[in-house]
Amino acid sequence: MGSEARTASNVKQAVPFFMVSSMKDSLRFYEGGLGFEMAFKWDVDGEIRWCWLKLGDAALMLQEYAQDGHQGGKPEGKLGQGVSICFICEDAIAIYREIKSRGIDAARPFVGNNMWVTSVSDPDGYRLDFESKTDVPEETVLAD
Questions:
Q1: Which CATH superfamily is domain 14-67+79-133 in?
Q2: What are the pLDDT digits (tens) for 9-21?
Q3: Where are the domains of the chain?
Q4: Please, what's the b/e burial string for 13-48 (b: 16 or more CB within 10 A of its CB; e: otherwise)?
Q5: pLDDT attached to residue 144
Q6: Environment class of 87 (CB within 10 Å of its CB; exposed 0-12, middle 13-18, buried 19+)
Q7: Rounded Cα distance, 77 and 35, in Å
Q8: Which of 1, 48, 112, 116 could form a disulfide with 92 if both were Cys (CB 3.0 to 4.6 A apart)?
Q9: How does DSSP classify residue 96?
Q10: CB 118 within 8 Å of CB 109
């Protein structure tokens, strides 16, 4: 067995790790808006500094920028610019309807690359795409 095979069989999951401006705003979006659940957390004096969130079999981690143990240290510019995470789902349209019902501004689903796609942006601009396979024609847009 070559070293590539050993490494590949050892890797179990990739988990995006987002540095965020406000843990409170991010948790409101991910837990309250998208339905993620907190699996693990690190808190200091009752304030969450890092957490691992899960939704189905997917996960992501959040940590608020800190400098010298205090909130701050965020770099200049928009944090999530150019970052997109794709969550492959059984039914992206159902996810779209669910998160819209929670007040999240989600893009109307369309078909691209043989998948229904709906997208949201978190408070820091990280883009999340929820996608599911379909045989509906390309560029179809979900009707109201």
A1: 2,3-Dihydroxybiphenyl 1,2-Dioxygenase, domain 1 (3.10.180.10)
A2: 788 899 999 999 9
A3: 14-67+79-133
A4: eeeeebbbbebeebbebbeebbebeeeeeeeeeeeb
A5: 76
A6: middle
A7: 28
A8: 116
A9: H
A10: yes
Quote the CA–CA distance of 29 and 26 in Å, as a whole number.
5
- What is the per-residue pLDDT for 2? 63
Strands of the sheet containing 110-112, edge to edge, are 84-88, 127-133, 115-121, 110-112
Q: Would the pLDDT of 4 be above 90?
A: no
23-55 pLDDT, tens digit per residue, is 999 999 999 999 999 999 999 889 999 999 999
Type and span of the H or E element at 55: strand 47-55
